[in-house]
Amino acid sequence: MTPFLLYIGRSSLYLALFYAFFLLVMRRTTFFRLNRLLLLAGTVACFLLPLLRLRTVEVPFLMVGSLTEVGADSALTDDPSAASPFPYLDLLYILGFLAVLGWTAAAMVRMYRTIRKGASTRLEDGTKLVLTEADVPSFSWGRTIVMSRKDAETNPVIRLHEEAHIRKAHTLDILLFTAVTLVHWFNPLVWITLSELKLLHEYEADDAVLNHGIDATQYQLLLVRKAVGDKRFTLANGFQHAKLKNRIDMMLQAPSSGWKRLSWLAILPFLAGTMFLCNPVRAKVVSADLSETVLTETVPAVLPDTTTTIPFANVEVKPTFNGGDAGTNFSKWVNENLKYPQAAKDAGAQGRILLQFTVYPDGSVRDTRVLRGVNPDLDAEALRVVSASPDWTPGYVKGEPVKVTYTFPVIFQLSGKKTEPKTASIHVTGEANDVFIRGALADSVLFILDGKPVPSRKDINLETIESIQVLKDEKAMEKYGEKGRYGVIEFTSKKQ
After folding, report:
1. pTM, 2 dp
2. Helical H runs in 229-372?
3. Alpha-carbon distance 152 to 161, whole Å?
4. Would you state the pLDDT for residue 179?
């Protein structure tokens, strides 16, 4: 799942919780203005909350996202997309977005066609009054009121109602919620709340009309007479709102107690709890095939200079690749550029390679090296691709770009085979313990007999061996260079 869809999922969870609270607790109160403003502010907050990331424990060596895997089949076809699953969720989301966008555009077109057909007049306050000869339902949009000429002459109270919509800028609310329905078209609570927001608009406009001294009974009778009508302009604020009974009930309802305004505070602990659910605590991670112990490092208290190299976990602002997180974007880029070496494929070589590189303050990738390899050809290919990485956006500490080390795993896997690395083992006759090097392919281990390399373990007669010594990692490379990268086993023959 892409980071964007993860963000949409989290924000949809916040919206569902917030709207459910409003529908269950506040929708029947008479705090029309307060409910409307908090509903809009809460909607904006639900879009921002997923961007706040909470972490109490950092991963000492962060291996972000899925490990890069290259199968033999994809290497043969040279088709990068063969290794990536088809983005069904992304496609479904885009189709839903386009469908809602088309429906919204069609409603806008119908509304503007009606506005253009009428005779318009500019009023003193800048409002445009459009009168149509056809018997269309009255509505307002922006600073435009659309009414039938008959209603303008016989029911002037309708114009008061629409002018109230304009004074209170209800169109801005509709535009904001239209954008919300486009992004969260799959969330039914978003659509329900949009309907409730329009009902809040009607409550406010009705209240404004009654405050002008209009008789409530006559006004309610007018609502009933106009209730049956064509509801074509679903985006606009219309006089003939569908929930007529709710509007009349709200006119008759006694004002809610002022203390009930504090009920809005009850949503805060629920939103805070959701934040922690969406931001789980990260535990320390130690890779199973690493023999060394990895300890958590703390962030330096002082600002390091740009020559200091900082582990990825300790950077305040993490480096990013192609505008996104490294785990997804960089893994995808490596996967698209990695080729399975034919020699390694013929030899059946596969396994997990652990690389380390540094992102410099200018964004360049340097100092790439193999921390744990499996085969010379596979190691070289992984090293080649990562070393050719495009520039990153550098990491920052206290506003200054710094050098950041990054540990990155790559998996080469042949179809139908597991990825566990082979183990080079030497069994000494008469001894209970095995001598082995964990995490290296047996064919890659360097065998030394009396100071000289030998092709393989089969060339050594263990009955003539007096002692065996195993060298791994840096000790092996210090003594034998690159030949010792995958481990060295030194054999010393018995004295004649």
Report:
1. 0.50
2. 244-252, 267-278, 331-337, 342-346
3. 12
4. 93
